[in-house]
Amino acid sequence: MKILYIGGTGNISTASSRLAIEMGMDLYLLNRGTKRTEIPGATTLVADHSDLKAVKRVVDGHEWDVVVNWIAFTEEDVARDYELFMRKTKQYIFISTASAYQKPGGHPVITESTPLYNPYWQYSRDKIACEDFLMQKFRDGGFPITIVRPSHTYDTVVPVPLCGWNDFTIIDRIRKGKEIIIHGDGTSLWTHTHSEDFAKGFNGLLGHRQAIGHSFHITSDEIMNWNHIYELVAEAAGAPLKAVHIPSDFIGRFHERSYGSLLGDKAQSVIFDNSKIKRFVPGFSATIKFSEGIKRTLSWFEEKPERMQMDPAKGQLVDRIINAYKSI
pTM of the prediction? Predict the structure, then answer.
């Protein structure tokens, strides 16, 4: 199969790119060529995805079995893709987000039929708008859309709110004995999914004609609460955990993005039903436990000192929130 990944070298997508090559796919990566991540065996097309004319130039003369956009965030992004690929691909896969699901919903278990509704987070609402646009194109003219909704998928990031993600700030704080914040009382349930596990389910959808018109989430079946998650992060860091529990709405007063990310997603208990992806991709199973995966992530950071960047602003924000909460 001839596959085009728009992006393809990020935290979630790199593992899927590498697996596509292992599976013998003819993989093309469309990106700006600024990342150092290498996918041996893939062909790189260099263009800024937001520049319609530039993308048209590099894809001219190509047709694809599958086009995947890993970096579309707004309706404008997918409308541009529709114009580019409506006659050039047999399947278009949009990477949405599981934060689009209504939380809390009417049922504790989330399936693909759970309503899409998030009044707290603009990021999620933009993804919902993308889904609506693409599904309308499917209904009106048969545009071959498949929607995939990852949830907190990690590999080269530390997947925790506040002081986490693509820098080493929270690990540095833990190792220096500084306090970190756990939102709420830490007992809400959550699921982390390693990118290599996600790739196994995702790549099984490539070229899957019966998946057209469908949406899927792809997550681990491992369920933990946030207290346990942070304990495993501290264990991987090799230092004791000094946590302060602070209500999510209090945190949100100090950091607008955290308000949406917490109240509209991570502060809620989440249990995903993965039976649909398992029906379409028989044999899919997430096997990397978070206790193992987070150690891999820290090892990746520590392989190269330049990856272990600190963000002083994040640490200052955490200190400000903790001081304000303790002063009440």
Answer: 0.96
